[in-house]
Amino acid sequence: xxxxHPGGRRVLxxxxxxxxxxxxxxxxxxxxxxxxxxxxxKNIGKEIETWGKAILLGVVGLVAIPVLLKRDVAGxxxxxxxxxxxxxxxxxxxxxxxxxxxxxxxxxx
Length: 109
What we know:
two-stranded antiparallel sheet, 5 helices
């Protein structure tokens, strides 16, 4: 429900605002909804991981086609090294985190 403000602007009626707050309090803040909302970061992370795996494999495959057709061993080695390096971040983030932490501890002491 909208009312007109004396300045000519249309604003929401206080009753509509109160009804919206009541609906939010009654339905949206159930334990299941609150739990799902608190795991937004995990859900986004899982989605990015899934897309990252698909994109990485697709890009490596497309980049490797010309190298395979040329039979370029050096180019193949470079693509393999890059795929392993980038794939480590996508497929094994915990292991990469451990390696980076270990390197940093050995440098910083």
